[in-house]
Amino acid sequence: MTGADIDAAAAAIDRGELVVYPTETVYGLGANALDPTAVERVFTVKGRSHDNPLSIGVPDVERAARYAHLSDRDRAFIERFLPGPVTVVCERRSPLPSLLTAGRDRVGIRIPDHSLALELLEATSPITATSANRSGAGSVTDPTELAPSLRDAVAVIIDDGHTPGTESTVVDPTRGVIHRRGAHADAVETWLAEH
Question: Helices 115-123 and 3-14 sit at what angle, rounded to 10 degrees?
């Protein structure tokens, strides 16, 4: 993997195209999260229901704060668990299209603990942070597993070999709710109980 691959992926995202990128969990499907047309492509390619919101990926907490109102509790949680395999649900800010969040007032934030993902996010963010698979199919841990329809729909695939495969835990720290148990779920549950 070279810087040119990251540059090509960032340029594709800036053009409104889709890319596949590795994370510390599974491969993600990325598009410009501020571009409703690009976000719509993600829903279409995945065959995902429009009432099922998408998360966003950003490289750091400062960038997260541009797109979400972070409470003190959110910030404390992020400081403990991110970067890492956890999606933090926070109150969304207006730059994000309502299509992305299925019209809801909250958005999932991912700061992946993966050097290539972070390089891509530094070059172009926010991007969609959703698994690179058709809805209902298993998550992709190696680019060779990509569905042909998805492979054909993306402009760039950043191949970093096999990923661990454990989904992120999805949690709303302010409301104290775990929406999906995944990586570090027990530690997240303990943190919520103690804070």
Answer: 40
Domain that holds residue 150: 3-194
What CATH number is attached to the domain comprising 185?
A: 3.90.870.10
Read off the pTM.
0.95
| Alpha carbons 1 and 161: distance in angstroms, whole number | 10
C-alpha–C-alpha distance, residues 125 and 193, integer Å: 32
- Reported in sequence order, the residue ranges of 1-101 that DSSP labels E, i.e. its strands, are 19-21, 28-30, 55-57, 68-69, 86-92
- Rounded CA separation 166/170 (Å): 12
| 129 vs 148: CA distance, rounded Å | 20
Per-residue pLDDT tens, the chain, 195 aa: give them.
557 799 999 999 999 999 999 999 999 999 999 999 999 999 999 999 999 999 999 999 999 999 999 999 999 999 999 999 999 999 999 899 999 999 999 999 999 999 999 999 999 989 999 999 999 999 999 999 999 999 999 999 999 999 999 999 999 999 999 999 999 999 999 999 999
- Tell me, rounded to whole angstroms, the distance of Cα 133 from its chain centroid: 13
For the chain, report the end-to-end CA distance as a whole number of angstroms: 41
